[in-house]
Amino acid sequence: MPDQHFTNAEKLPPYIFAQINALKSEARSKGEDIIDFGMGNPDQPTPSPIVEKLIETVKNSATHRYSQSAGLPKLRKAIKDWYMRKFNVQLDSNSEVVTCMGSKEGIAHLALATLSNEDNVLVQSPTYPIHSYGVVIAGANLQSISLKENLDDFLIDVEENIINSPKKPKMIIINFPSNPTTQTVTLDFLKKIVEIGKKYDIWIIHDLAYADIVFDGYQAPSILQVEGAKDIAVEFFTLSKSYNMPGWRVGFCCGNQDLVQALTKIKSYMDYGTFTPIQVAAIKAINECDEEVNQICKMYESRRDELCNGLNRIGWDVEKPLATMFVWAKIPENYIDLGSLEFSKLLIKHAQVAVSPGAGFGIDGDNYVRFSLIENEHRTRQAVRGIKNFLSMEI
Ligand SMILES: Cc1ncc(COP(=O)(O)O)c(C=O)c1O
Question: Which terminus of the chain has a smaller tally of CB atoms within 10 A, N or C?
Fold first, then answer.
């Protein structure tokens, strides 16, 4: 048998969500109706103008050939226009924009393109796993920094970590509005982190996946709105959430030319780009579907209200997030010692409700579980009833 030393795969821990998925499948195979708030996987169809554009385009056989890895020029132009329209940010669509096959792919490949085993990278924790594991896969040294309720304290920790690090970090990866904590920031916060990046010559990667899923008048700022941010920063965005397009795999990375070009180069070796009809439909989405985005946002707002009001009513105190498609809920006091994985297992068993254990996003998340708002209001009410019964049981 060949040597079974799979260096990169072995660096990755067993997927904590797999244990919950296995329990979910087992319960379903017994005929139980599990209400699933687990994955951040939008449940609604992609808006029909986008689907129609795909169908129209796929009929043209010229689109069946290899596409362009960096993205069709018209798609990159649509992205550039989106930044101008939404954030008043000027970009050069040739050198400062690259599309990717979903932002997850882009983040992982940017890490691979830019890092080596001599590099330290600061990453907020808890966080969406590819922020940390992109660094690990690239062989670099991950330095997790706990998110604080007060994000000014987080900035202090970032700076202290830089100062005390045996080797100056090369990069900081942040994500606001944050998955899973749902924390949001002001432009002032982003200004401060750009200041830190510039002071110590450190690249900043910002993941803005939830730019559009915002509530109660909150607007999520882009790091590229900060004067001079392009000297050191790039930002990722995805069509998965705003346009209900998770399966289509379209995202993009914009900003600093050196980082964008490093990602463009490594991708040109690895892929031929997203299928052309999907890229053409993505142009339609970005240019013409702002109203559909508003409707999607309203849907999440209504689900958020149903879930948060319901949980608060039954005595599980949770905060209403100002953004994202998640509710980040501290485990009720009586159960907190169990940790998030065991508590999530109990929720499946006794409440028929699946959530993501907070520990899946980093050990800092272990006192929490994450609800994704992917069930409608009716199912959400049913889930709250199940949770109420469970919380009143003697276990
Ligand atoms: C913060 C964040 N970034 C990136 C992604 C990945 O999105 P994509 O579908 O573009 O790969 C997700 C998906 O849940 C996410 O929550």
Answer: N
Rounded distance from Cα 205 to ligand 1 centre (Å): 14
Q: Taking Cα atoms as reference points, which of 325, 232, 285 lies closest to residue 43?
A: 325
pLDDT digits (tens, 9 = 90+) for 186-242: 999 999 999 999 999 999 999 999 999 999 999 999 999 999 999 999 999 999 999
* Lookup: tokens for 245: 């397009």
Superfamily (CATH) of domain 7-45+292-391: Aspartate Aminotransferase, domain 1 (3.90.1150.10)
Write down the domain spans for the chain: 7-45+292-391, 49-288
User: What's the fold here for domain 49-288?
Assistant: Aspartate Aminotransferase; domain 2 (3.40.640)
Q: 49-288: same fold as 7-45+292-391?
A: no
Instruction: Find the residues whose C-beta lies inside 6 A of ligand 1.
Output: 40, 102-104, 128, 175, 179, 207, 209, 238, 240, 246, 251
Beta carbons within 8 Å of 165's beta carbon, 6+ residues apart: 120, 143
Query: pLDDT digits over 86-102, tens only?
Result: 999 999 999 999 999 99
CA of 234 to the centre of ligand 1 (A): 16
Taking the whole predicted model, whether its pTM rises above 0.85 is answered as yes
